[in-house]
Specification:
Order of helices and strands: HHHHEEHEHEHEEHHEHEEHH
Strand content: 15-25%
Number of domains: 2
Helix content: 25-40%
CATH topology of the largest domain: Rossmann fold
CATH superfamily of the largest domain: Vaccinia Virus protein VP39
Radius of gyration: 21 Å
Distance between the termini: 53 Å
Shape: globular
Length: 304
């Protein structure tokens, strides 16, 4: 149990103290926040089982002795163990929705949330989306959010990791979408023979070996299976590009996050007409291709 600091009484006291501790420790922020104060607020509020949107007026509330101990311990673990806040409090937010997480899944943070909130428009007419595939689903956040923003669509969540799929199932149940969301174990498309979708969306492992080695400690707390994409980061990306067309409807689209491997992908396949999506809230490295484009460039994917 961490030593209790003197003079800290209210929620805001612990947020301020936590932010100071984080700044002095030189922590990395990249799993939902980008600064020490927001990180401390997320950790303290989460540790008290309060939503991040708690009105500011409540931050003057006093913590009980047991709550002070619990929050202090969380702050100390964040500093000494470099564990992402989402793992410490067991939850994260994506597209305005709460999801359970643990260290068997990546912490949700994809800019694809903006596309989901917009029903994937203007890239496809949201009203005619009947089926969505969330490939390499992890916690299930992208696919489950899609099911909630597209109430008439059926969604398949696919991952190779049984441990990740256990988390996804919890989130499916939490959001009450069992009637429209399936959870399937599969190595990419292996278990999806004959299945076609209007939208395939994927945030696969795409971090290169060199980039992975240089990541801050917080990222090494996440499952390597969800991050490491081979020497150049493109091992799974290229497989998805090769196979996606046969699992899309005639007017279907592929949305694929490749992060910092975007430049390598463009250099490897310079003739492909990549559409790189721009996001209002920040983020990059997300491409879009239609089924027609995937078919037209199939030979290049095969040769890559």
């Amino acid at each position: 149990m961490a030593e209790q600091p003197d003079g800290l009484i209210t929620i805001q006291d612990y947020i301020r103290w936590g932010a100071t501790r984080f700044n002095r420790a030189g922590l990395w922020f990249g799993h939902g926040t980008d600064n020490a104060l927001d990180e401390a607020a997320a950790l303290v509020l989460g540790g008290l089982d309060l939503d991040p949107g708690l009105p500011v007026s409540f931050r003057g509330c006093r913590l009980t002795p047991a709550e002070r101990v619990a929050v202090t311990d969380l702050i100390e673990r964040r500093v000494t163990e470099r564990v992402p806040t989402a793992y410490l409090i067991g939850r994260a937010w994506f597209a305005g929705l709460r999801f359970d997480v643990d260290d068997q899944v990546l912490v949700p943070r994809s800019p694809i949330a903006e596309l989901v909130e917009a029903g994937f428009e203007p890239w496809i007419d949201g009203e005619r989306i009947g089926r969505v595939l969330d490939l390499c689903t992890g916690s299930g956040c992208i696919g489950i959010a899609a099911a909630l923003f597209l109430p008439d669509a059926d969604v398949d969540l696919v991952d190779i990791s049984p441990a990740a799929l256990a988390v996804a199932r919890r989130n499916v149940a939490h959001h009450g979408v069992e009637d429209r969301v399936r959870v399937l174990e599969s190595n990419l498309f292996d278990a999806l023979a004959g299945q076609r979708y209007d939208v395939i969306v994927s945030n696969p492992p795409y971090v290169s070996a060199a980039e992975f080695a240089a990541l801050p400690p917080e990222y090494h707390r996440e499952p390597q299976l969800g991050l490491h994409g081979g020497d150049d980061g493109l091992d799974l990306v290229l497989l998805i590009l090769l196979e996606a067309a046969r699992h899309l409807t005639e007017s279907g689209i592929l949305i694929l996050e490749v992060g910092n491997s975007a430049r390598e992908l463009e250099q490897r396949l310079p003739l492909v007409p990549w559409t790189w999506i721009e996001f209002e809230r920040g983020g990059e490295g997300v491409l879009l291709l239609t089924r027609e484009q995937l078919v037209q460039h199939q030979g290049e994917f095969e040769g890559a």
